[in-house]
Amino acid sequence: MQTSHTGGSNPSRLTTSVGVGPRASLDRRVFLAIALGALATPSAADAQHAGKISRIGILANVAPDPSGTDLWGAFVQGLRELGYVDGQNVIIEQRSCEGQYDRLPALAAELVRLNVDVIVVPAGQNARAAQQATRTIPILAASFGDPTSFGLVASYARPGGNITGLSFAGPELVGKQLQLLREMLPGISKVAVLTNPTNPLHSRWVDQASIAARSLQLELQRVAAREPQELDGAFTALARAHAGAVAVVPDGMFLLHRARIADLEAKRRIPAMYALREHVEAGGLAFYGASLRDNFRRIATYVDKILKGATPRDLPIEQPMRFELVVNTKTARQLGLTLPQSFLVRADQLID
């Protein structure tokens, strides 16, 4: 049997290096148990990190609905599904510009001063404001338009900076919406696009709408509303111009006042196609696009990865895989429309 000195205070004390016999085998099992236990036990630093309450910043365009049924409610639900509960193991700091985009930089700076661990935003303009405030805090967008065109990320596969998230609806979507309007209303010759000039992304939507309108041989009119008080005037202008339909592009202010827009659609009898499903649920005629609510729920998985140590530059931007067409048949009747059966059978859902 080979032996060796233990190096303790008593140099004559010997210990078995390989171990033969029941006592040696027992000593070896005890040693392995202690060693494995040490590996399994988190360090003090790990334990402190595990017990840390992370701070999640939200830089929104629309204030979260207390009922939890809105888009941010879907985000909070996504967090809960992953084990995060506001006030227990995370703290959610919410800031909303209420559709006034010029307020975004100040609100972003406020979240940075709060030293949040991650900032979650709904769209590209919010991501830009957040990035101007910090180049180190991770920024996650629930619904990018085209982040590469605006220099927010290097590529979809490897964003490269402190921004990543989910793609939702790029400006090219408006071309498909105009095509669907043409199929839904075969006799129209003039369509319009409703934009918010304070939204820096809308110029691209107008460009794409112009290209699509020429291809479809439709006359295109642009109407704008910077604030809620201008919505009435915008629909009045559409009625005077005899627009056959209008495409309403995604916008925080429009979403906040979606019930008002649906009322104006009915009052002016101007069929509308929306890029956000929430408009149709509020009484709008039709929606085509991806599920924004699903994006807000899914962005919680990105938050989870960031809080567990991932970096935005290594998290690819996911693009929507499925688009859906939803038609509110009750609104169609109110507008006096008889929609082609060939169009209705293509709808993923009919709301009545």
Could you give a short description of this structure?
With 352 residues, the protein is α/β, with parallel strands linked by helices. The protein is built from 14 helices and 14 strands. It has helices at 22-40, 44-50, 71-81, 104-113, 124-133, 173-184, 202-215, 231-240, 252-256, 258-268, 277-281, 292-307, 329-334, 341-344, and strands spanning 3-5, 14-16, 54-60, 90-96, 118-121, 139-144, 163-167, 190-195, 219-224, 245-248, 272-274, 286-289, 324-328, 349-351.
SSE blueprint:
Elements: E1 3-5, E2 14-16, H1 22-40, H2 44-50, E3 54-60, H3 71-81, E4 90-96, H4 104-113, E5 118-121, H5 124-133, E6 139-144, E7 163-167, H6 173-184, E8 190-195, H7 202-215, E9 219-224, H8 231-240, E10 245-248, H9 252-256, H10 258-268, E11 272-274, H11 277-281, E12 286-289, H12 292-307, E13 324-328, H13 329-334, H14 341-344, E14 349-351
Parallel strand pairs: 3-4, 3-5, 5-6, 6-7, 8-9, 8-10, 10-11, 11-12, 13-14
Antiparallel strand pairs: 1-2, 12-13
Helix pairs in contact: 3-12, 4-5, 6-7, 8-10
Walk me through what this model shows:
By secondary structure, the protein is of the alpha/beta class. It has 2 domains: 139 residues, Response regulator (Rossmann fold), CATH 3.40.50.2300; 146 residues, Rossmann fold (3-Layer(aba) Sandwich), CATH 3.40.50.2300. 40% of the residues lie in helices and 19% in strands. It has 14 helices and 14 strands. Strands 9-8-10-11-12-13-14 form a 7-stranded mixed sheet, sandwiched between helices. Strands 4-3-5-6-7 form a 5-stranded parallel sheet. β5, α5 and β6 form a beta-alpha-beta unit. The radius of gyration is 28 Å and the shape is elongated. The N and C termini lie far apart (87 Å). The N terminus is likely disordered.
